[in-house]
Amino acid sequence: MMIPERPSLERRVLAALDGSAGNGTRIPVVLGGCGTGRTSLLLRLRDLIGRTSAQYVDVERIATTPERFSKSLRDPSPFAPGPFGKSEGTDTGARAAFDATLAFLDTVRAPGDVPATFLLDEFLELRTFESFPGLRSVLRDLLAALSTSGNRFVLTTRYMARAHRLLRDAPAQFEIIPVAPLTPSEVRATLPTVPASRTLSGAIVDEDDRARDELARLVHAISDGRPSYARMIAEASTSLGSRGAVDPVSALTALLSPPGTIATACRFSYELRLHRARGYGALKAILDVLAEEEPLTLTEIASRLRRTPGSTKDYLSWLEDVDLIVSRQKRYSFADPMMRLWVRLNADAAPPTEEDIARQVHAYVMNRLPHNEPALAMAGAQPRDAERDKPWGIIEID
């Protein structure tokens, strides 16, 4: 299932491509973590621009060898073949194949001899080519070629720290566009219809709008505005709603169970990022430490890890490099609160029980709920004395 459309983000990217923002044509570089909708954005742009004028390329999928990448890029292309069109197997060697790829991106044109648009998803994966002879600066070569081309390009990556470092000295044409979290209104726009008789409190209301507003506020708070989490929680909540009250908390509990979709998404992101970093075992240990308590200073983490501050600093920098943690005022914490919850649930030798998941989810949700919204009170919550007798609806977790 696709993550919902983001019209404002689409407009910003299109404005960069056509120069309507007033500072000339740009090459947008869209940065966002796993599940933020980067791929959905590119596929939507392909349809908006036109499939004969734009080619979507999943770089992560086809970045094997330079020769095979070149062939996989060119053979299905909607653009008319030119000097570097359909591959005939004549590219000999890694360097020659990569040069042919750059030439193809630069010289090919869309029908009518208009600029072609390439949508390069997870472009940093081309870094894997740097292990081949003669290809020690693949990414910088790519940026240089794109910046002087008459064609148009949109780049995306989940590795934000690496992208910022790469683009620090890049030509001025490149424009970094971060994918912002969803707003409550954007979450609301994606929600399926909520039956009016099934609100969070169980009360019957006359209009569906109130139920949708209530569900959107809670889904936004629980998901941290992250599109994939918001979509999964909303869909599971309304599915549960067909059998009773719409309950995002019970939905999240189910989604974080070992076969749940959020658990699967977190495991994918966790393993993918750790395998792109150095020091796998030590990095897992630091994430376990931060799952127990955050934020922590370098000294506090080193003490818990029983390692020197120097080696711990290296580990932390490697975790920052793959955006698993962030540092604010010299204190470290998870970049993704849901990932922290998942690590906390899976830090023991045995899988978490249903009771473990329910307890940890309850604590997580209570910590994220706006305190000034008593209508969102959750199971086990102890209201303040002044509110103890108010008839707020309570969702119970068995």
Supply database-style keywords:
10% strand; 3 domains; Arc Repressor Mutant, subunit A; single chain; 5-stranded parallel sheet; alpha/beta; 398 residues; Rossmann fold; 17 helices; 3-stranded antiparallel sheet
Short description:
The protein is an alpha/beta fold and 398 residues long. It is 47% helix and 10% strand. Strand 3 and strand 4 form a beta hairpin.
The spatial strand order of the largest sheet comes to 2-5-6-1-7
- The CATH first-level class of the largest domain comes to Alpha Beta
| Structural domains: how many | 3
The helix/strand order is: HEHEHHHEEEHEHEHHHHHHEHHEEHH
Overview of the structural elements:
It is a single chain. This protein has three domains: 7-178, Rossmann fold, CATH 3.40.50; 184-257 and 352-387, no CATH class; 262-345, Arc Repressor Mutant, subunit A. The protein contains 17 helices and ten strands. It has helices at 7-18, 38-49, 59-62, 66-74, 94-107, 138-147, 160-167, 184-190, 208-223, 227-241, 248-255, 261-275, 280-292, 298-305, 309-321, 337-345, 354-368; strands at residues 27-31, 54-58, 109-110, 114-115, 117-121, 152-157, 174-178, 296-297, 325-328, 331-334. The protein has a five-stranded parallel sheet with strand order 2-5-6-1-7, with helices on both faces. A three-stranded antiparallel sheet has the order 8-10-9. β3 and β4 (114-115) form a beta hairpin. α5 runs parallel beside α6 (138-147), α8 packs across α9 and α9 packs across α10. The longest helix has 16 residues, at 208-223. The radius of gyration is 24 Å and the shape is globular. 40% of the residues are buried.
